[in-house]
Amino acid sequence: MSAAVSPPTAAPPTGAELALHGARLGHPDGAAVSGPVALRIAPGELLTVVGPSGCGKTTLLRTLAGLLPPLEGRVTQDGEPVRRPGADRALVFQHDALLPWRSVRANVELPLAIRRVPRAVRRATAEEWLERVGLAGHAHKLPGRLSGGQRQRVQLARALAGRPRAVLMDEPFGALDATTRAGMQDLLVEILRGTGATVVFVTHDVDEALHLGDRVALFASGEVLDVPHPRARDARHLPATEALRRHVLDSL
Amino acid sequence: MSLGRRLVRVASPLAALGVWQLLTSLDVNLWLRFEQFPTVVEVASALADRIGTEAYWQDLGHSLRRIALGFLLAAVLGVAAGTAVARSRWAADVLGPLVEVVRPIPAIALVPVAILLLPTNEQGIVFITCAAALFPVLVSTRHAVRALDPAWEEAVLTLGGGRARVLFSVVLPGSLPGIFGGLSVGIGVAWICVISAEMISGEYGVGYRTWQDYTVVDYPGVFVGMATIGVLGRLTSTAVEALGRRVTAWLPRPAERGTDVPSRAPGSPADAAPTRTAVVVPVPEKEPVP
């Protein structure tokens, strides 16, 4: 396993360290998933996980979130075992998991309401996050009134509003068209700046993984590779990036 | 709704009344015998007489109080039990078999049970009404809770929510569409049973009065009772439906989905307005790609 690279976006060391130790992942009544057995995700780093669709990447995220216990081995956050889901590790879903009966703002306020933050603070924080994701004028709408891309932005705002120490993202842009997707990647980079949160970003899109990640984990082999130029759009065609892309594509 | 449809909706019951009036005033006897059958005019004049009496409104008040109590009890118990059975294996094991055995028993067949158990007739009628409405509510709630999108619950859990938060922020609001399906069925069954129970064991009440009129061979009076029940049933079920539409306004509209959404009430202000504002305030969907 390669050493963690501290990302340029994370200023304060508030991110959680997540790790798998000899873990076998899967559903209790299903077959185990042939995913990584040992993995260490450094505080504040953005790790992308690539693998073909249906290989169990979601299972990895659900295990890290604490929604699913590992079949064997341990999952830890800062050395402490993860036993149940909690506000420390927010999950962003591929298909929007916004509560459709709550307005956009009420959805973003949810993690704060759970923490019993006073209403005025809650509202101000939600407004601020909606502004950051470019949806300031949509606070009163129901999620059903938004486009797919807008709903994913609300999900991002909701996940980050609770100041989680880790954000687990399950192909959040997988259902979006290519242009929207690139815009969302930039937005994600933008809004993660200053949060310091550790991010695990699962995708089947190699280019997305190479663009966003500080490191790329290959799901099937568990191999973790350093990305030479994280989050630099113009580094796409540099030789180092090209070499890594070829390596990743070959291994899939 | 278009003018044509409105006309049809008004004309259809009027035509039925016209046929009824013709058949009865001409004393038609074509295998079906209409000689003894009261005419529409007779029923209408009986209704006009009754409406002026205090007894009519007293009966109405009694029936309404019984159904309100029984139905509200059934709603609370049904939602609570349905949620418990769907969410907890323990509750499913304890309550599930019991529910399935008691459910097929017609509520009106519980009259002996009510007489044995409860001190007053009044409570017995409420008990039977409640028993009737309970099962539709319980079963619909159970299905609705089981059909919830698991992502909603997982989202709340990973935002730090606990069991109570999941229950009140996800399970109950998310299953409201199904719960209201059960309540709509329940209010109908509740009327059937409150009237039947009043006929068997009531003092006062629309069902009691209707049966009294029958025993004294006051046929127009019987029809006044039936019409009253019909109107009350219609009003209460409309109220349940309207409340249901209100609390499930977040459901996708028929324009976006199929036609099976019960939200096509004419003039429902929630229908059109938000769509229009969505068009008026366009927000750039895509960020420029550097």
TrEMBL record, chain B:
<feature type="domain" description="ABC transmembrane type-1">
    <location>
        <begin position="60"/>
        <end position="244"/>
    </location>
</feature>
<feature type="transmembrane region" description="Helical">
    <location>
        <begin position="98"/>
        <end position="118"/>
    </location>
</feature>
<keyword id="KW-0472">Membrane</keyword>
<comment type="similarity">
    <text>Belongs to the binding-protein-dependent transport system permease family.</text>
</comment>
<keyword id="KW-1133">Transmembrane helix</keyword>
<keyword id="KW-1003">Cell membrane</keyword>
<feature type="transmembrane region" description="Helical">
    <location>
        <begin position="217"/>
        <end position="236"/>
    </location>
</feature>
<dbReference type="InterPro" id="IPR000515">
    <property type="entry name" value="MetI-like"/>
</dbReference>
<protein>
    <submittedName>
        <fullName>ABC transporter permease</fullName>
    </submittedName>
</protein>
<feature type="region of interest" description="Disordered">
    <location>
        <begin position="254"/>
        <end position="290"/>
    </location>
</feature>
<feature type="transmembrane region" description="Helical">
    <location>
        <begin position="166"/>
        <end position="197"/>
    </location>
</feature>
<dbReference type="InterPro" id="IPR035906">
    <property type="entry name" value="MetI-like_sf"/>
</dbReference>
<feature type="transmembrane region" description="Helical">
    <location>
        <begin position="124"/>
        <end position="145"/>
    </location>
</feature>
<feature type="compositionally biased region" description="Low complexity">
    <location>
        <begin position="269"/>
        <end position="283"/>
    </location>
</feature>
<keyword id="KW-0812">Transmembrane</keyword>
<feature type="transmembrane region" description="Helical">
    <location>
        <begin position="67"/>
        <end position="86"/>
    </location>
</feature>
<dbReference type="Pfam" id="PF00528">
    <property type="entry name" value="BPD_transp_1"/>
</dbReference>
<keyword id="KW-0813">Transport</keyword>
